[in-house]
Amino acid sequence: MEKSAGGPPQDGDSSTDDTDRPAADARQSPPALLETLAARVPEPTVVVGPDLDIVVANDRLTDLVGLSPSVLVGEPVTWLFPSLSQTAIEENCRAETGEYLRSPRDGADGDGWVELAFDEHRWDDRTYYVGVAHDVTDRHEREQMLEQYERIVETIEDGVYTLDEAFTIQTVNSAVESMTGHAAEDLVGESAMVLADESTLEEAARLAEEMQFGDREVGTLTTELTTADGGTLPVETRFTTYDLDDGRFRQVGVVRDISERRRLERTLAALHDATRYLLRAETKSEVAEHIVATATDVLDLPEASMFLFHPGENVLKQTAVSGHDGEHATTRPVTPDSGLIWDTFVDNEQVSFGPDSDLELGGGLTGTELTGIALPLDDHGVFLVRTDGEVDSRVREMIELLAASAQAALARVDRELTLRQRESERRSQNRELRQLKEVNAIIRRIDRVLVEAETVEAIEQAVCDQLAASELFSLAWIGRQDGGELSPRSWAGDSARYLDSIDRSVHAEGGPPSVRTSQAERMTVVPAIGDSLRDGAWRTAAISRNYQSVISVPLQYDEFVYGVLTVYSDRSDAFGEMFQSVFAELGESIANAIRDVESRQREAADTVLELDLSLGATDTLLVQLADALDTTVTCDGAVPHEGEATRLFIEVEGDPDADVAETIASIVSVESVTDLSVDDDVDRYELIVDGPTVAGTLTELAANLSSLTATARGIEVTLHLTTDVDVREFVERLQRRYPETQLVARREQTVPHRTHDGIRAALEERLTDRQLEVLQTSYLSGFFDWPRKSTGQDVADMLDVSQPTVNRHLRVSERKLIELLFDDV
Q1: Over 70: is that where the pLDDT of 379 sits?
Q2: Do strands 741-750 and 126-135 pair parallel, antiparallel, or not at all (unpaired)?
């Protein structure tokens, strides 16, 4: 708007009254007039010239900016108000009333903001602009803050809304539009019922009422919003109320999409269920299979597998795999330093891998085939998952949580397995101790029988009776080889007819345990007869009688077998290591008892069997000696020595060219040799021999040696047996050690009458082992001959004892022998 005026009034012209002021103003110069006008304006006012220099600044303006007119006048107005320009001022002069230019301001009192409205005035063809300013610093700051809030509201992912007290939608941000699929213009002005159901709004109204009464500050609701496509969206909203000036109130709230949270909750619930299942898993395989299935089914991973460590083999083996139809299943173990899986295990550090890693994973897998994560499971193994690309932190956290659950479950299984093993061992030990106590009682009863029995038959039957009487055993029997089969000699227990139903031929392969023991002369144990049921008819016959396990031991003493003891039980695994040891010793004890009884029977018999035997035993000591001396060697007797050694007394005929003692000593098995010769007719020697000898073997077989002569061709033996001895069995026993043994002659001989038990047997019962050894050695060395062939010192040297000790043992032995002869007279 242009305005023209006359000359401005002069300052200090007091003659002019108010009615004449316009005329006076017209008489003033333009700057003076503008200064007068500016001074009269109650608002901060500035007058600028055509070049935008400040011409006039009233007192209100100087107060606003804190600068004096002398400082302001002449300065460009843009120095004070930087946003102003010539064009902007001219356009504002032409604009409608109420439009303003906003600009920051500089000043001594600090920065601020103003709004200016300009009018254009012309004097003397010059244009002046009069601007009236309003300080809007506070309003500008509020508007700026509000703008920031609006930007925040529009940029945050959560939805922001306002409702009036009638739940009419007032505003929504773009996030609400994205969540619901509704445009803002379709929502504003509508009832919130378009998004939430009635029950949700009722609960919101209740919470809003509590806020109005001051009972709460913020309300929280979890509900579902109806989307534009008719679906639902789980959300959580937090809102509060604020009052308006007219007494009404509004609600402002934030709504958050909790779909991911719901999925996370479901995942966590599934993981929780998986963890609860792991508490029931009893084996590491169960744990592994459940973990990999959870990884693919719950975490939606394409593939997962678990490699468990096998300490005994020092390898990792893939125990379970899930997903992709087991595409990357492998049976190859992961060995030390074979790749990433092993490194993850030993370094105990999580490793991510992918196609670019080009790493050997181990077990035949390479990093070029898989992308995923390898997670160590402490000392249990490695959990391997395939991810098909990078995974976000939440999925990785779930994978790590699953691995931690697997590690804890595997550790628990280990602990429980150890506890179960210890408990099982404890129960087994207690059971074995109870059984051992019972078996020891049985053995003690059997030992009494072995000592008291007078016949072999009594020993065999008593052993079977004692064993079968125990609840531990069902059937016990003893058999000996007879005519190509194992013939039962005694038995006791349930279903003894079982023996008639099985093949006892000793020539058949794969027979029952008793036959196999007889064939191999070693223990046979079958812990579970029901296993491999079709391997022999004896198994089905045993199972039908509820026999579950069996043990068979040879009745063997010094390599000679006197039969086979077989015991059945109605329990599987009834004959463990402890029982096997007990029965092995029992077999030896029975064999020794049978040997002693047969020996006593032989000594007590009036009639004996006399056998002539020929042994082609060219590798025996006496044959080697006869060959080396080129003469005949006769054995006068054998006395058991320490350990496996035997004391032999021999005579060497003729006058051999070689040094006899030196030749004997050169034989490896001879430990020592003593010359007992007292005349030139016969050379007599005492030998300590390590290992078996023919004379010692015959003594062990309860034979009474009559004569034994060795030449370079072999040995000729004459011996006596009791009449109840099975000659064929005796010869077969001897042939097991000396295969070229032949029976030359057999005949019965009558011997002088002896006491009931036999003098020798009675004497052996009265003498100690040492006394008997001293007596036998003295007799066989010629101590009792006249003239004596050896002295007391000689005998002492043989036995490595002092002469007084020999004399004492001989005096005691002689007294006991005389007592045996005359006590009953």
Answers
A1: yes
A2: unpaired
Tell me which DSSP letter residue 741 carries.
E
Cα(587)–Cα(130) distance, integer angstroms: 136
Total Cβ atoms within 10 A of residue 672: 15
Q: Residue 799 to residues 589, 639, 807: CA-CA distances in angstroms?
A: 28, 12, 12
Structure tokens at 614: 């020929």
What are the tens digits of pLDDT across the range 421-445? 888 888 878 877 887 788 888 888 8
Helix (H, G, I), strand (E, B) or coil at 345: helix
Residue type for 669, please? Answer: S
Phi–psi pair at 210, nearest 5 degrees: -65, -35
The contacts of residue 138 (CB under 8 Å, 6+ apart) are none
Question: pTM, whole model, 2 decimals?
Answer: 0.43
Cα of 576 vs its chain's centroid, Å: 27
Yes or no: say if 457 and 478 are a contact pair by the CB < 8 Å rule: no
C-alpha Rg value of the chain to the nearest Å: 61
Q: Can you give the three-state secondary structure of 601-639, one letter per residue? A: HHHHCCEEEEEEEEECCCCCHHHHHHHHHCCCEEEEEEE
Tell me the pLDDT tens digit for each residue of 681-735. 667 888 888 888 888 888 878 788 888 999 988 999 998 888 778 888 888 888 8
Query: Which token pair is 668?
Result: 């490896």
* Beta strands at 351-353 and 372-376: parallel, antiparallel or unpaired: antiparallel
Percentage of the chain modeled with pLDDT above 90: 16
Kindly write down the DSSP assignment for every residue of 668-699, as one continuous string: TTEEEEEE---SSS-EEEEEEEES--HHHHHH
Spacing of C-alpha 158 from chain mean position: 48
What's the token pair of residue 543?
A: 């199972």
Q: In terms of C-beta density within 10 A (0-12 exposed, 13-18 middle, 19 or more buried), how is residue 4 classed?
A: exposed
DSSP symbols for 378-412: TTSEEEEEE-SS---HHHHHHHHHHHHHHHHHHHH
> Mind listing the pLDDT tens digit for each residue in 310-364?
998 999 998 888 876 656 677 788 888 877 888 899 999 998 887 766 556 665 5
CA-CA-CA-CA torsion sign (557, 558, 564, 565) = positive
Sign of the alpha-carbon dihedral angle for 732, 733, 736, 740: negative
Among 493, 554, 563, CA closest to 525: 554
Task: Decide if 582 contacts 563 (C-beta within 8 A).
Answer: no
For residue range 157-205, list pLDDT tens digits in order: 788 888 998 899 998 888 888 889 999 899 999 999 999 999 999 999 9
Region at 692 (left for phi over 0; alpha for psi -120 to 50; beta for the rest): beta
Q: Which amino acid is at 327?
A: E
The total number of residues written for the chain in this structure:
825
Average model confidence (pLDDT) across the chain: 82
Check residue 496 and report its DSSP letter.
G
Query: Which of the 8 DSSP states describes residue 202?
Result: H
Bridge partner residues of 113 (DSSP): 104
Q: What is the Cα–Cα distance from 98 to 118, expressed in whole angstroms?
A: 11
Q: List the one residue out of 2, 10, 57, 58 whose CA is nearest residue 33.
A: 10
Residue 20: the pLDDT is: 45
What pLDDT, on a 0 to 100 scale, did the predictor assign at position 554?
Answer: 93
Query: What residues contact 572, with CB distance under 8 A and at least 6 apart?
Result: 527, 528, 530, 548, 549
Count the Cβ atoms, other than its own, within 10 Å of residue 577: 9
What is the pLDDT at residue 659?
Answer: 81
Q: How far apart are CA 583 and CA 443, in angstroms?
A: 10
The CA distance from 700 to 725, in Å, is 14
Alpha helix locations (H) across 325-392? 340-347
The torsion of the CA quartet 211, 215, 221, 225, rounded to 10 degrees, works out to: -20
CA atoms within 13 A on the CB side of 566: 30
Q: Cα(first)–Cα(last) distance of the chain, in Å? A: 176
- Helix, strand, coil shares of the chain, percent, nearest 5, are 40, 25, 30
Q: Which of 337, 353, 348, 437 is nearest to 387 (CA)?
A: 353
What's the average model confidence in pLDDT over 261-289? 82
